[in-house]
């Protein structure tokens, strides 16, 4: 689930606003800014005082731009019309233009002797564009056009079935989740990938141009620029991700092995060979990135927890507002202040009957003070109750860092925001549900395997996917993967990390990476990998701080003021310090550690090993 907050990362927002927009949509008026920036760099002897003046001016501009932009985006997402789309796009364009100007001007201070805070703020500006444009106005305009085209191809993508039915991605996503018909799944899978071959020449050119832009800002290539966003050398960051993956892999391998066996039983071992990667269309998701939708196919026997939160919510007369109030209470139980009244009057909780809105759940921070909101079309289900806890995690984070300078009103690194939402959701355990009176008894530990399996299908299955998307892009941007190998390299990485393979031979023109939103949209992906690692470590650490004595998958930090204080200390820091300092506040360590995942899933791992005995695992 996403969050909307005040940062310079306008890309994601732009794509939400209108499919025709994407990163760095510079108009010719950029030229003036570029010239201005060049002039500044031509003036010799810039000083720290100049830097401070520049940063102060930008901060003022940013506050105004952010507020205008968020308001326009909010109105658009809540009243989708041609007019609101165009107003939101205009506001976003203004912000993006400003972002380009700031980044280039910030780069002119690269060799100036400034203090660490100034350097950190200048770096925030330099990193503000995920697709930096070259300084040449023509190339900059070309990059903007390409971005818009890629976004539009994806946004308008659809597939007409052999039976003549036109399906949107939403329709196909739902079929991928629910169909158990091998051929129908294959048709959906290949059908959606027909949208992307035309992206390939655009994507190739975009990589060239953005690389040139990144070099202009002083980075080796765009991948190196993305990897420079983590308070450590770019190469160390890549190594760090590999190290973390190495910790999780044994658990993933056992999950993969077990799921492959079960799918073999469902579809036949002629279709799911037991010594090869799993065909990518059978895992309940268009990208095989999370597998929770096939829980019914792999559910452990006798592991039903014996209650259904959706039914319990109905029995206890929970409507949408009561669900939100319930989730808010989780945070106040930790010692956080209650949400402001405007949260309740300004948020969107239910799908309006009379107009189009964007229903995808999101958390907003309009003014960097107290005007925080969520926008959700809440369904009265157990899963959505969980999502509300997650979204409020974003809101409480946003409010916690509101007193930081505008530059640092962000999560400690880009994995933290999602990780915090999910950390809170990990505390929505049977124990918590009992404490708030939603269920009567906590199921005994023998039932935990079912809950853990569901979590593992969603979260453990995701981890190698979360890693490989940028592994591929980094290699594309560094030139290691050439355009003629784009698709084959994509599948080599998917097989290597996920043990998942294309179900049929891919056409020479295929461009399967383009069928995943974040590739044409130009949104970096490592943050999702990080969030999946960090959330378990936060959870384990906060449970320990709360004095928990249960296994950590059973722990909820509900009611723990100690855990709340530690959490708040970290959230308040925003991105003002290297993320390692924020990490240390909760975990006691400056380095990430994926062993928390192994602890959390320990009972499932034992169970999986047992089930996999005598099998040929691996891919
Ligand atoms: Zn989220």
Automatic annotation (TrEMBL):
Binding site for chloride: 230, 527
InterPro entries registered for this protein in UniProt: Peptidase_M2
PROSITE patterns noted in UniProt: PEPTIDASE_M2 (PS52011), PROKAR_LIPOPROTEIN (PS51257)
Sites where a glycan is attached: 115
Catalytic residues (UniProt): 391 (proton acceptor 2), 391 (proton acceptor 1), 518 (proton donor 2), 518 (proton donor 1)
Signal peptide region: 1-25
Binding site for Zn(2+) 2: 390, 394, 418
Gene Ontology cellular-component annotations: membrane
Top-level taxonomic group: Bacteria
GO process terms (BP): proteolysis
Species in which this protein is naturally found: Colwellia demingiae
Keywords annotated in UniProt: Disulfide bond, Glycoprotein, Metal-binding, Signal, Zinc
GO molecular function, one term: metallopeptidase activity
UniProt-annotated binding residues for Zn(2+) 1: 390, 394, 418
Name of the protein described by the UniProt record: M2 family metallopeptidase
Disulfide bridge partners, by residue number: 359-377, 543-555
PANTHER family hit by this protein: ANGIOTENSIN-CONVERTING ENZYME
């Amino acid at each position: 689930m996403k969050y909307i907050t005040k940062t310079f990362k306008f890309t994601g927002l732009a794509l939400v606003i209108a499919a025709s927009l994407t990163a760095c949509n510079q108009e010719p008026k950029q030229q003036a800014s570029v010239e201005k920036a060049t002039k500044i760099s031509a003036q010799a002897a810039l000083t720290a005082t100049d830097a401070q003046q520049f940063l102060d001016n930008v901060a003022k501009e940013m506050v105004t731009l952010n507020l205008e932009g968020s308001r326009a985006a909010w109105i658009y997402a809540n009243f989708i019309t041609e007019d609101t789309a165009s107003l939101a796009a205009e506001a976003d364009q203004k912000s993006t233009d400003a972002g380009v100007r700031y980044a280039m001007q910030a780069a002119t201070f690269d060799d100036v002797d400034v203090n660490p805070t100034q350097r950190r703020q200048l770096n925030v500006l330099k990193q503000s564009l995920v697709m930096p444009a070259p300084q040449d106005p023509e190339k900059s305009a070309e990059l903007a056009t390409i971005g818009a085209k890629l976004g539009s191809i994806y946004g308008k993508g659809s597939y007409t079935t052999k039976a003549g039915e036109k399906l949107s991605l939403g329709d196909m996503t739902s079929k991928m989740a629910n169909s158990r018909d091998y051929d129908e799944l294959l048709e959906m899978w290949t059908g959606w990938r027909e949208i992307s071959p035309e992206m390939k020449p655009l994507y190739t050119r975009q990589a060239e141009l953005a690389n040139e832009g990144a070099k202009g800002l002083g980075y080796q290539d765009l991948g190196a620029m993305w990897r420079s966003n983590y308070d450590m050398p770019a190469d160390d960051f890549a190594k760090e991700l590999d190290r973390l993956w190495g910790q999780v892999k044994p658990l993933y391998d056992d999950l993969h092995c077990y799921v492959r066996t079960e799918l073999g039983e469902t579809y036949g071992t002629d279709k799911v060979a037991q010594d090869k990667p799993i065909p990518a269309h059978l895992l309940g998701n268009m990208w095989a990135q999370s597998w929770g939708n096939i829980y019914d196919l792999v559910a452990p026997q006798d592991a039903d927890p014996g209650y259904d939160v959706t039914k319990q919510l109905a029995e206890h007369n929970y409507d949408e507002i009561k669900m939100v109030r319930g989730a808010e209470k989780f945070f106040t139980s930790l010692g956080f202040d209650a949400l402001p009244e405007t949260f309740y009057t300004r948020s969107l909780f239910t799908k309006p009957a009379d107009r189009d809105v964007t229903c995808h759940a999101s958390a907003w921070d309009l003014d960097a003070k107290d005007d925080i909101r969520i926008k959700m079309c809440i369904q009265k289900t157990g899963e959505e109750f969980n999502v509300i806890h997650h979204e409020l995690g974003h809101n409480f984070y946003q409010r916690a860092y509101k007193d930081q300078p505008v530059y640092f009103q962000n999560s400690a690194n880009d994995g933290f925001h999602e990780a915090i939402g999910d950390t809170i959701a990990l505390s929505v355990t049977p124990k918590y549900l009992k404490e708030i009176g939603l269920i009567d008894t906590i199921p005994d530990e023998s039932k935990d395997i079912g809950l853990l399996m569901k979590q593992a299908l969603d979260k453990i299955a995701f981890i190698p996917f979360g890693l490989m998307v940028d592994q591929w892009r980094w290699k594309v941007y560094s030139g290691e993967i050439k355009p003629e190998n784009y698709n084959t390299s994509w599948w080599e990485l998917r097989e290597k990390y996920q043990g998942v393979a294309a179900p049929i031979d891919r056409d020479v023109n295929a461009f399967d990476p383009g069928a995943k939103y974040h590739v044409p949209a130009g949104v970096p992906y490592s943050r999702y990998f990080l969030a999946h690692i960090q959330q378990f470590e936060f959870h384990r650490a906060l449970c320990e701080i709360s004095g928990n004595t249960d296994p950590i998958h059973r722990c909820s930090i509900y009611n723990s003021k100690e855990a709340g204080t530690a959490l708040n200390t970290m959230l308040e820091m925003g991105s003002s310090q290297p993320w390692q300092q924020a990490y240390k506040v909760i975990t006691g360590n400056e380095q990430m550690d994926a062993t928390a995942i192994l602890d959390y899933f320990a009972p499932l791992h034992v169970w999986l090993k047992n089930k996999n005995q005598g099998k040929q695992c691996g891919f």
